[in-house]
Specification:
Radius of gyration: 21 Å
Oligomer: single chain
Number of helices: 5
Largest sheet: 2 strands, antiparallel
Length: 129
Amino acid sequence: MNAKRTLQKAAVACVAVAGAVVLFAPAYSTASIGADGVERAGSASVLQHVGPWTLLLVLIPAAIAAVPLVAAPWPGQSSTIVSASLMVAWGIVGAASIGVLYWPAILCSVASVFAPTRSPRGSGSPRRS
């Protein structure tokens, strides 16, 4: 496996972790006082509070990050560049809220643009005496 493919897979893994955090981590706090005078406090995840349409917000960056892995090879590394560019745009647009959680995936995507496609010649081969 080469460095480029490893970074692309790492980007997808980072997007999956960020998506799980966005959907399931406690993000909202609730507090209320009942008619009986008892205070109640709780928390809710984005999925619980906003609803199932938030799955779309998690699937968009996942699909973008997966493009270089599942798309037919485009000339050169076009799919990698397009994916990295869209991931950067996603991080900028969402920077005030969930975009920060996607920065590890964005860094992996951008690094995969500059990573070599093949390992250097001679690596992994036995030495000749």
